[in-house]
Amino acid sequence: MFLTYLGRELRRRLRQTLVVAVGLAVGIGLVITVNAASAGVADAQSQVLSALYGVGTDITVTQQAEPGAGGGPGRFDFGDTTSETVTQDRLMVGAGTTTMDATVIDTITSQPHVARAVGSLQLTDVTLSGTFSPPPQGQQPGPGGQNGQGGQGWSRPQIDLNSFTIVGVDVTTLDVGPLSSASLVDGRAFTTDDTADGAAPVALLSTEYANTKNLAIGDTLTIAGTSVSVVGTVSSTSGEATDVFLPLNLAQTLAGHEGKVTTIYVQANGADNVATAQGEIQAALPDLTVKTASDLASQISGSLSSASGLANNLGRWLSIIVLVAAFAVAALFTISGVSRRVREFGTLKALGWRSPRIIGQVVGESVVQGLLGGVLGIGLGLLGAFLVARFAPDLTATLTSGFGSDGRFGGAGAMPAGGPFGGGGEMGALPGGGPGGPGGAFRTASEITVQLTAPVTFASIALAVGLAAAGGLIAGGFGGWRASRLRPADALRRID
Amino acid sequence: MYELTNVIKKYETKRGPVTALAGIDLTIADGDLVAIQGPTGHGKSTLLQMLGGLDRPTSGTITFDGEDIGTMPERRLADLRAHKFGFVFQSFNLVPTLSALENVEAALVPLTVPAAERRERASRALAEVGLAERLDHLPSELSGGQQQRVAIARALVKEPKVILADEPTGNLDEDTRDEIIEFIEELHRERGLTVIMVTHDTWVAQRAQRTLWIQKGKVKLRTGAPEQERRLRTRRR
Lengths: 496, 237
Known about the structure:
Chain A is an alpha+beta fold. Helices cover 41% and strands 22% of the residues of chain A. In chain A, strands 1, 2, 3, 5, 6, 7, 8, 9, 10, 11, 13 and 14 form a twelve-stranded mixed β-sheet that branches. Chain A has a three-stranded antiparallel β-sheet with strand order 15-16-19, with helices on one face. In chain A, helix 2 packs antiparallel against helix 8 and helix 2 runs antiparallel to helix 11. In chain B, the strands form two sheets. Chain B has a six-stranded mixed β-sheet with strand order 6-7-8-3-9-10, sandwiched between helices. A four-stranded antiparallel β-sheet of chain B has the order 2-1-4-5, sandwiched between helices. In chain B, strand 7, helix 6 and strand 8 form a beta-alpha-beta unit. Chain B contains eight helices and ten strands. Chain B has a single domain, classed as P-loop containing nucleotide triphosphate hydrolases (Rossmann fold), CATH 3.40.50.300. Chains A and B meet through helix 1, helix 9 and helix 12 of A and helix 1, helix 2, strand 6 and helix 3 of B.
């Protein structure tokens, strides 16, 4: 009787049933879509973080670069050359980072909640080459220019600036750190033989860099005056601008930073221990910057960050508002339905039906209505998630200033120069030239492009069903409360 | 048997209290066929609802088979309505979404009768009122007379002790009215049911053993008062 009565009643009020169900469906569909988009954004963030950090890395430790210090290559010293062609190759520590002693790794590893720690050295190789036309005989160099206003010295030179990024990696532990998220495309990976004394200098290139520079396995590239053989190419989900990977000891030697690292990648001994390990490391090494993936996430900008904000703020609030409105509409419809059925319920009470049975009938109808909305909502949610995944543009994540930096690094004199070369200025022995520009131009901004997915999880389906049932119960609760207050005599009197 | 002693019922309205029943003393014996008449709004239906346990008096007592239904807990009152009282209303009050059979079955739901037995008893009750061929019809597919028969079947199916009918023929044409009243008389005669009917129709009232005329919440005229009531009234004097 319960189900027969319920089914007939819902069918009789088909239009109202559909309005309530569709209202709930829109709310629930939005919740699923927003949840899916949030999960997609979270996936994208985690993809970005693992690309930046490397898979398996929980914490990074860096030495904060002093504002205005480091980062830039400093002044290029051309001596008192009179040559028309000049080439300078400088290898410097990556922007925004500074070196620290590799013995710090041992301190970190000795912390109770740390499983492993490996160091890397981030470098930037900058090659400046150009040709200059000397002034006519007897002419003196002119006064220095201001803000790029050239003097009367050498005429405007043709300058070629070429730079690429290098990361020295610990060959013995490649599953944590920068290479952990990379996969070998061609050639071979590093082996421990590559770090042996007297071993030939070898490098792995990112496929993008190899393609851009037309480099293949067996080719050589010159780093700080040393020829290095390309033994493999790797691709990475990372969009980080790492062009060349070297064994750590080779990178240290070439850069003149023996025994130094710029970034230490740490793996905690359990996902739940990341914060504890972070605290231990920070306590042991208070001068260093210790960051977890979640700290880094807050530094991400770009459309991924916007999408995250959109999903977490606008989307969430929108779905809550729609859901509350749907619940309210469902409750109002149910109460109004009960009001229209006063005579019916009064009659049933006259037949001996007790209030709980009548309330159960009203709640049952509302819950079925809610579940119908839930089923429709799941359909809408899946459609919404599909549309998000299908039509959402690729997201970009930008992490400025490299690991652990606050972006305030870089000092005067860093490349490029602020204006065209002219009268005497900051270009070392070159006569003429403007003042050096701010170091910011050498800041690295890691930009990663990820495809936004919108995975619908079992949990979000369960949430939808729960919300649907809750919507039904809330509406039914109000309706039932209204019905329970009904006195049979009043109900029957109202029709007389 | 009903015994009503100084039953008063007042309603609170926005314009102040309204007295619907102003002190009713009444005895209705088992097996009586009683008609209640009177002007509209003078307390007939209120009295019927009190007798059916649908409402409670403001003061005074209403006992049914020795139990005070005016102060009875709601659960017990619901049980009493489920087992002892059968209601028939002027506008039939059938659940519009349920078939004739299901409407009759609805009266057996509170008795927790198994579904198969419920169906069987409901079919039999409908057959008794001449609607064996209309079991699956919705109320909207039945005439007024047929709907009232379904309502009577619904009142009878639980085998009650009392039938309380509020203007049972008010919405029916004369032929159908006669049919329904004859049927109610037959029930009263053959099953010994107590029947209490509110009616405006004098012809209907004349078929009753007793008639009460209610005016301004009081019983003004009685015909055929039973022995118990006479004794009660004598004792109160």
